[in-house]
Design brief:
Blueprint: E1 27-28, E2 36-37, H1 40-73, E3 98-100, E4 107-109, H2 110-114, E5 117-118, E6 124-125, H3 140-152, H4 156-168, H5 177-188, H6 193-205, H7 213-225, H8 229-241, H9 245-257, H10 261-272, H11 278-295, H12 298-303
Antiparallel strand pairs: 1-2, 3-4, 5-6
Helix pairs in contact: 3-4, 4-5, 5-6, 6-7, 7-8, 8-9, 9-10, 9-11, 10-11
């Protein structure tokens, strides 16, 4: 005997072993959760009859869950930072292509960050935020003080950046991976994409925790779905190691379209050894060139020579 999974067809709970009906039929199969019993004795008695059906339910549920997960995982993600609030061009995905401003909490592109700033009289103003016109901090202490203000108001970007400073020991902060990890976990609670990637890296390398590949991939996937191309590239590498070339190509094609040059090189390697088609590699090249066209500006070209990501301003 089996029970319909359509609740509208049979809204009264029914024991699939003895046929008893009523609200006290609440004992559900532990594995498939699809059939019900009036008590543990009926469940045990019916186990051998239900085994094959149960396994099929579980298999179908797993397939459906995997399908839904992959649809979400391989969906074209949003741009990591969107458009620059000053020039309105897409912000580059390279770390040196943007700057977080602790004065106003904005992420602006490198071109606008290094472009001249003028006051209302047309005079150039040195070391001033191009967005809010606040003066740049003059010391490590002032830089950290401003950043802590952003952290204290729950600014996820600020929290993640403070973690970055601890990870690299900059702005006179001690190098402390454990502290960085704690801050990234806090930023992740707000859904911060780069924090997801950094947490994945921690678990991937065992920097201050035990290596856990399952957790690493979990956080890499969260980061990739949010638009982090480094995480997306790493997922592709993992798929190659597992022999899943088609899935690796899907990941790398998405990463290339958002400017990940390492994924483009990986696609070239697959094409060279015959594991990717000419059409796939050509599409990857085209996507990368389109990305470069979207982010190109004369200001950003000039700023390329000033890529010190640890500057105060």
């Amino acid at each position: 005997m089996s029970i319909s999974t359509d609740k509208s067809a049979n809204s009264i709970p029914t024991c699939v072993n003895c046929g008893k009906e009523g609200s006290d039929v609440t004992n559900t199969c532990n594995k498939c959760k699809m059939v019900m019993y009036c008590n543990a004795a009926c469940k045990k008695k019916h186990r051998h009859k239900h085994k094959q059906e149960c396994e099929e339910h579980v298999r179908l549920a797993a397939e459906q869950a995997t399908k839904l997960h992959d649809e979400k995982l391989f969906k074209q993600p949003p741009m990591l930072y969107g458009d620059c609030p000053i020039c309105f061009l897409r912000i580059p995905t390279l770390l040196s292509g943007s700057k977080y401003k602790t004065c106003c909490g904005k992420v602006i592109c490198s071109g606008c960050n290094f472009a001249p700033v003028y006051d209302h009289k047309g005079s150039m103003v040195d070391e001033t935020c191009p967005f809010c016109r606040a003066a740049a901090p003059r010391s490590d202490e002032e830089a950290i003080e401003r950043l802590n203000k952003r952290v204290n108001v729950g600014d996820a970007e600020g929290i993640s950046n403070l973690g970055f400073y601890y990870a690299h020991g900059v702005h006179s902060l001690p190098q402390d991976n454990t502290k960085a990890f704690e801050l990234w976990l806090k930023a992740a609670e707000f859904g911060h994409v780069t924090a997801y990637f950094n947490i994945g890296t921690i678990y991937d390398t065992g920097m201050c925790v035990e290596v856990d590949n399952k957790k690493a991939n979990h956080y890499y996937e969260l980061a990739a779905m949010g638009g982090d191309i480094k995480a997306r590239h790493n997922l592709g590498c993992s798929e190659v190691e597992e022999g899943n070339i088609d899935r690796a190509i899907k990941h790398w094609m998405i990463a290339v379209a958002s400017g990940e040059a390492t994924s483009l090189a990986a696609m070239q390697s697959l094409y060279s050894d015959g594991r990717a088609t000419k059409e796939e590699f050509t599409q990857a090249l085209r996507s990368y060139q389109e990305y470069l066209g979207e982010i190109k500006s004369s200001q950003r070209d000039e700023a390329a020579a000033y890529s010190d990501i640890y500057k105060y301003y």
